[in-house]
Amino acid sequence: MNFQELQGRLRTQIRDRIEGGELTGIALSRAAGFQPAHLSNFLSGRRGLSLEAMDRLLAGLELEIADLMEPEDLRPAISPASAAGLQRVALVSPEVAARVPRPPPGHMAGSLMFQSAFLRRLRPNDVCRRRDWLRFVVLRLKGESARSLQPQPLPAAAVLVDRHYTSLQPLRRSQPNLYAARVNASLVIGEVRLAGDYLVVRPRNPQRSLELVRIERPRAYADCIIGRVCQLLMET
Question: Confidence band (pLDDT; 50, 70, 90) for 81?
Answer without folding.
Answer: very low
